[in-house]
Structures are given as structure tokens and as C-alpha cells.
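Could someone model arginine with this protein?
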Amino acid sequence: MKPVIDIIDQQICQAIKTVSGEDSPAMVTVATDAKFGDYQANAAMVLAKKLKSNPRKIAEQIVEKLNISDICEKPEIAGPGFINLRLKPEYISAALLQINSDPERLGIDKEQQSKTVVVDFSGPNIAKEMHVGHLRSTIIGDCICRMLEFAGHNVIRQNHIGDWGTQFGMLVAYLNLEFRTQNSELRIQNSIHISDLEQFYKNAKAKCDADESFEKLSRQQVVKLHDGNSETLNIWKHIVDESRKNYQPIYNRLGVNLHKENERGESFYKDMLPGVVGDLKKAGLAKESDGAICIFPEGFKTKEGQPLPFIIQKSDGAYLYATTDLAALRFRINQLHANKIIYVTDARQQLHFQMLFAVAKQAGWVNENIELVHVTFGSVLGDDGRPFKTRSGENVKLQELLDEAVSRAGKIVEQKNPALDKEQKRQIANAVGIGAVKYADFSNNRTSDYVFSFDRMLAMDGNTAVYMQYAYARVKSIHRKAEEKNIDVDGEIKRAAKLNFTTAEELDLAKHIVRYGEAVEAATRDYRPNFLTQYLYELAQKFSGFYNACPVLDADAASRPTRLLLCELTAQTIKHGLNELLGIDVVEQM
Ligand code: ARG
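Reply:
Sure, complex below.
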């Protein structure tokens, strides 16, 4: 089923063509005020400007040729030439029944052309615990994957972990120094944990700065690592495995679909780096400048107006983040056959990706059918409006943040519903706590910064996860009560060939349910989860309005099937949005 807004758009374009022979946009939006209808088209103003004619007249001509009577009531023309459209109850009825017959997709079509889309997200740096700075890439990236998968694309999730580089030389040298036993065995298996590693890394760095001989040892270890020295590699591998023990459980808790097989860290590309530099040199793009190998992509300038270098090899021969990203990009196109690559990182990496894309295009690695996208996001801030840190100024560890959210949620559950059994309480606290953190992030426009607040994200009313989860549980409880009263919900719904809307609230809720596809499409197109949360919030509000105004179980026989169906579809839509697309758990009872 095509979203109504697209059908209307198409029909108006058609009418414009018939009237004027022009290809002019229909400019359809959701009406700002329900008074005027459900949709509004500004097509006439645009076309009138083009034709230098009267917009109201044009609107009349468009309406006359408009073939839309199966969906909308007779269009109305308002003001200078707005075309106002109102959906017909018969259409809404048919649409809801169709949605109901398709529980998997809720009537939402797949994209006609399935693409192979690589989504590069999360990408924590190894040997450090994941902190709040990794939250956004991890969950927004996962949500983008879910939306694209639902649209029918072949999504390849890639976790580009930072597992290669000079810091590992330092760490290995440090471990060698501290953990070598007398018979020179390295006792690190089982004895080194991620929380230690972070401290070791700090110690190693301090030692490096203070002690020249240690610095030399570190550099030797980098060389050994690059040369594939087996002992050095083993220690390195242990560090990576240890780090995974930190981030994998976090992914699992967050409901983020990332596993070891999605991992292609920086180290994966190490052998391709000389080829990248060599090929770019051969192509005449990479040149030596001040000892380093650089590319000067067109259109990038320093503050002083000089060409801006994209450095791919330092004078000591070392490769950089940029070199690895070039190798990864080429690998994704040539080996993974990506039609689209989406990178999800914070906005500070914007210039890096702009230059990366420019270089790859100039090198001819990206043909015009391949799309490169950088999806950016703002920072998570503390109450003071500065990047969110602990009181002592450390990064907030993600693990601890999630623990805190779940523990606070547990207290709320205890207060609201002390009679539940322990296991139920635990499950609800988990769903509510983790859901709160994710939903609060999603519900902000991703390009803005937002202030992290447990109190706000766990509020029972407002645009929060728990409000949505509660709405879901409430609808489900209606179903349970119906069963207690021996009402055959599924049977009644099945027998309803046509719905019967008798109140404004029913119609309002029904229209909103029909619009789910529009919201999903918009969120997917712009990679913006907040379009979904906004939709869901309005859905829950409209459900509330409906439920306050309309008895369901005690409704008369003419109304009950319609109302039962509205409840069913509200529940299914919330569940689909929260669970399938945002990866947030719902609970049947709260
Ligand atoms: N490890 C990087 C960081 O922490 C993120 C990686 C993003 N992906 C990429 N292909 N560069 O900033």
C-alpha cells in the first residue's frame, strides 16, 4: 500500500500535467490544522508563478482534473490557492482493514529497488571502555540498519573498530614490561581486563612522555606489530578480545544488532594501505608535500586559502585514519558491492568524510550509481551544557550509565506496581531503563546536541519511552479484559467488512494509523529516528483521546468491532515502531 501522501502527490502532478503540460511539484504536506482537512497542496502557487497566472484559477483547474475521488472528499480551495484535501472514511476503513490483513508489514511496501547498503557505525576504539560518546553512533546506526532492512535493502553492518595504530605499540611495550615473568612468559591471559587496560594505557602514555627508552620500545613494538611478529600479535589480539568482552554485552543490552562477524576493524585493512597510496600516486593524485604523502582534493582550502591536504602517509612511513578509510571504502565497493555507504559519526568528523568522499570520487573509485552518505549527530551534554562527564571529569562509562537507568526504572516499577513478581519487575525495569536512554536520544533531532537527564527520560508523561511502553501495555490490557469477558476480539474484527466511525476521536486515531507508512518512509529517507518517535508519541496521544471518549468493551454492537480494531492496530503499530525499528522492548503489562 502506497502512503496516501504519495498517491495524492502523484495525482496532483498528473492533473498539473493535464492542465498545463508542465512538470511542476505538487507540494503536498500534512495539513497544519485539522480544520482545513488532512493534506494541503501548494502546487497552484508554484505553477502560477511559472505561468505568470492567477493561482486561485490554477487551483480550480487542477482540482477539476484531479482524479482522487476514491480517496478524498471534494477538494476545497482556500486563500490564494491552497488545495485542501480530506480523506474519506470509506478509504480509511479500507486502508485499516488492509493494514490489519498484513501484520508483518502493516501495509507498508518494500522499496522497489533493493540496494546493498553498508552502514558503518559504533566503531569504538579498542583498549578503552565504551563511554557515552559511543552511544549515539551505536544506536542511531542500528536504527538506520533496521529501517533500511525493513525497506527491503540488503544491509551490511560494519563495525570499524579502532584496533590498529601507535597506541598498541605503547600498550604492548607496557604489558611486556609489567607482566613478564622470570622465565619471560607473558602472564596476561585471564589477568588483564578492560578496566585495567584503560589504566595501563594511561600509564603507558605517561611513561612514553617521560622516558625516551620506553618510547623507543613502543615504536619497536609498532614495527613488530606491522611486521606480523607473532608474539606481539598475540598480545594485541588478547587486547582486542578483552575489549570485545566490554562492548559486546553493551550491544546486547542495548538491543543493537552487532556481532563479531560485523567487525572489520582498522587492522583488517592494514595490508591494503600500501596499495592505496601506490594507486593514488600512480593516478597522479597523491604527492609528497613536506615529507608526507598528501592529496589535495578540489574545493578544499585552509583558512589562509591554501589547498587543504588529505594526508595518507606520514614522513616516517606511517599510515593514517584517512588511509584506512580509503582502503575500507574501496573494499566496500569492490568486494562488498555496496550501492550505498552510510557512515554514522559525530559532526566533528564532517570534514574528514567530505574529503574522503571527494578523494574517492576524484580517484574514480565511486561511480555515479554509488551514494556516499555521512550521517552526523550532535553531542550528549551534561546539565551544565558541556559534554556529559562524571563529577571527576571522566567520560561516563556506558555500562554504568545503563546500570543507573535500569536501577532508577526499577524503583519506579516498585512504586507503581509492587504486586508484580520479581522476574516481571526485573524485565520491566530493563525495558524501561534501557528504552528510556535510547528513546531520549532518538527523540532529539540527531543533528542537535541534547542534555542528558535521567529524570526527564524516565518521566511517565511526555515524549518518552515509558509513556509509549505504558500506552502499549494499556492497549494490551484491554485485550486481556476482553478475553475475561469472553469477547471474541479476533472474530469480531474479522467479521467487520467495513468500519463504522461515529466519533471524531475514532477517525482521528484511524487516520493517524494509516499514516504510519509515511512516518516510516520519512524517517528512513532522512535517517531521522525522531520522525518515528514523534509519530509514535502522537499515536499514543490520539489513542488516549480515543480511549477517554469511546468505550470499547462496552460499546454497542455497531461500534465495537471498529474500536477493537483501532486498539489492535494501535498496539501493533507501537510495537512495530518501538521494537522492530527502534530496537526498544515493549512489555505486555506494567
Ligand atoms: N573509531 C572512530 C572514532 O572513534 C570511528 C570510526 C568511524 N568509521 C570510519 N570508517 N571512520 O572516532
